[in-house]
Specification:
Rossmann fold; Alpha-Beta Plaits; 2 domains; six-stranded mixed sheet; 37% helix; binds adenosine-5'-triphosphate; binds magnesium ion
């Protein structure tokens, strides 16, 4: 349904998106996950035809975004990062306005506006001016306008940002309900969002794809690794070095309170070996626990490299 090929976007000398390629099948819900400045919004703006790429191509339902922009826009509902403000319109008149703009036939217009209001639960505020609504309701208006033309594809840029926990839960439920009926790409920089709503995730970092897999697949990929948590009575200086030099150890961090975190490759026998080293160093072992690395760690590993840390985040 969506094909993105070798997409590149330069802002002056800065590459915001760097030869990005991926595809999304009809009916899929894909999460676009990445830290601030990764290039998520830029990619979405190009897919929706709001901005031309510097190189590469995007097709939606077989139509090229720049050769057939009208065909593409007909098929896409877009919730931008900062939704346009038509503060002095009422919710209902705004949705009618968007539906007309999107070319919804006159005979279907009222019914589609009703459905969008119903799906996003805006019935109680339909006659109120948008500028007087709370942030959460304004966000729902944003989602509602994306839905009103009943498009095949929904592109939602950070759909739950700034909402309170109850509204976050409601919007996630709404996205799940929409899932069977639309092809969806949503962006977020928080993991629970993709875990709650998406089947597949594309992790993007510094304009490139760092990983692309199903949620399960990504967790599995890293399942070889394990983190070992150790707590000791007496943190001896030498123990960190001893642990670091143990074969299979990928990293050691000593925290306050006698806590040591050790990332390992999960190879057989490594944990007893680490216990032995701690005991031999004479630290007084109080606690040792092995933990499988979760998706949050995968995300951090994939998006944090020494190179990035040295350069600082791209903002
Ligand atoms: N109009 C612009 N002019 C210059 N640079 C820009 C422009 N828009 C974005 N950038 C830069 O491009 C990079 C990618 O930005 P983008 O907004 O796509 O990231 P994002 O992944 O959506 O981040 P966030 O999670 O903060 O929304 C950033 O380094 C940003 O500073
Ligand atoms: Mg963004």
């Amino acid at each position: 349904m969506i094909e993105v090929r070798e997409l590149t976007k330069n802002y002056g000398p800065h590459k915001a998106v760097d030869r990005l390629s991926f595809s999304v099948k009809k009916g899929e819900v894909v999460g676009f996950l990445g830290p601030n400045g990764a290039g998520k919004t830029t990619t979405m703006k190009i897919i929706t035809g709001f901005m031309p790429p510097s190189a590469g191509s995007v097709t939606v339902a077989g139509f090229d975004v720049f050769e057939d922009p009208i065909e593409v826009k007909k098929r896409i509902g877009y919730l931008p990062e900062t939704p346009p403000v038509y503060g002095e319109m009422t919710v209902e008149s705004y949705l009618k306005f968007v539906a007309r703009l999107k070319g919804v036939e006159k005979s279907k217009l009222s019914a589609q506006v009703e459905r969008a209001i119903e799906k996003t639960d805006l019935g109680s505020v339909r006659k109120r001016m948008i500028q007087n609504l709370s942030k959460g309701y304004r966000q729902r208006v944003g989602i509602s306008q994306a839905l009103v033309s009943e498009p095949e594809v929904l592109i939602l840029d950070e759909p739950t940002v700034g909402l309170d926990p109850r509204q976050v839960a409601e919007v996630r439920k709404l996205i799940k309900d929409l899932a069977g009926h639309h092809t969806i790409i949503l962006s977020t920089h928080i993991l629970p969002e993709v875990q709650a709503t998406c089947e597949r995730i594309i992790i993007i970092n510094r304009g490139r794809i760092a990983a692309e897999d199903s949620l399960d697949g990504l967790s599995r990929r890293m399942s070889g690794s394990a983190r070992v948590h150790v707590r000791v009575v007496d943190m001896k200086d030498s123990v960190v070095g001893d642990l670091r030099s143990t074969p299979g150890v990928q990293g050691v961090v000593a925290r306050g309170g006698g806590v040591i975190e050790i990332d390992t490759d999960g190879s057989k026998g490594i944990t007893p070996k680490l216990a032995e080293r701690v005991v031999t160093a004479g630290c007084g072992l109080l606690e040792l626990r092995e933990e499988r690395i979760n998706l949050e760690d995968v995300f951090l590993k994939l998006t944090t490299s020494e190179e990035n840390q040295n350069k600082g985040a791209t903002l």
